[in-house]
Specification:
By secondary structure, the chain is an alpha+beta fold. The chain contains ten helices and six strands, in the order H-H-E-E-E-E-E-E-H-H-H-H-H-H-H-H. A hairpin with a 2-residue loop joins strand 5 and strand 6. It starts with a helix and ends in a 20-residue tail after the last helix.
């Protein structure tokens, strides 16, 4: 399903489930819709309205949360959680960085995931992030909230990729590419920057990447990185 259809699916369900009414009553994250069931029986769902939702004239600025339920243990996932998982998969899980980059670029354009093919391609050693890494990431967030629980486990590839697919749509909804904004290009830029900084030939740090992710401004491109993939994200 294309991103435009995925976006329509979410927006139609928001309207059907009275997103605006729940927002006006400050009933945050009071409703949820199941989006995906993974092969390991994990469930990915969307909770809404999110705390950053608001009315802007007659328009609603949508904010929502992507939740992961694995064997009854629930947590929400953010861009920072996704970055930590990608970073950990390469450095400790020894996943092939170039192949993961190709998978993410394909996902950024099509919204499709051929999970059996991906799991064969990205064979790696599942390894949870270390407590030391999580402690550093928490420090990098400063006064901003970091959901450490979202990185206590190594995400299954299906959990990771499906979560990315649904998380990035929020950027397309609120910052449409067709109107000159970055949309999901922003998200995938950070994800691919994460892969880039795990390689020897780079001059950046994971702390820098986390701060770019948390910034409300549009970060400047890294001079040694090729961002031409963004032109294919429409």
């Amino acid at each position: 399903m294309s991103y435009s259809l995925l976006q329509k699916y979410l927006e139609d369900n928001f309207k059907k489930n009275d997103f605006g009414k729940s927002l006006s009553l400050s009933q945050f994250n009071s409703k949820f819709i199941k989006l995906e069931t993974c092969e390991n029986h994990s469930i990915i769902s969307v909770s809404f309205p999110g705390y950053k939702s608001k009315f802007k004239g007659s328009k609603i600025i949508y904010d929502y949360r992507i939740d992961l339920d694995r064997k009854g243990k629930e947590t929400s996932l953010s861009h920072s959680n996704i970055l930590v998982d990608i970073y950990n998969k390469i450095l400790h899980g020894k996943i092939d960085a170039e192949k993961l980059s190709d998978v993410l670029m394909e996902l950024s354009q099509t919204g499709r995931i051929e999970i059996k093919k991906v799991k064969t391609l990205l064979n790696y050693r599942p390894t949870p992030p270390t407590p030391q890494l999580l402690k550093l990431v928490k420090q990098y967030h400063g006064s901003k909230y970091y959901n450490e629980l979202g990185n206590k486990i190594d995400l299954d590839l299906e959990e990771l990729l499906y979560s990315i697919k649904w998380i990035v749509i929020q950027e397309d909804i609120n910052y449409p590419i067709s109107q000159g904004f970055e949309g999901r290009r922003m998200c995938f830029s950070r994800y691919l920057e994460c892969i880039h900084l795990t390689q020897e030939q780079n001059s950046h740090t994971f702390e820098e990447l986390i701060k770019r992710t948390l910034s409300h401004k549009r970060p400047k491109p890294w001079s040694e990185m090729d961002y031409s993939f963004k032109e294919k994200i429409k």
